[in-house]
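Field reference: sequence -> structure
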Amino acid sequence: MRAEARKPWQEEARAHARAAAREFGEALKAMLPERFWQHMKAARREALLSMRTILDGLLEEETPSTGVERS
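Structure field:
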């Protein structure tokens, strides 16, 4: 649904939902120590690197070798 087709109350509801999510995030930040967030960031990075490795491996299996090295 395009933005101009939305009803005013739908836009207001979306704005409140975004604000609620933002406030929930701020509440979590206030409750948990900074070290927790450092470890969460590191865990997220490792998960993303794992996904990248899996995707690279699958692409290598699917793509015929052209003799060109990937960087």
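Note: The mean pLDDT is 89.
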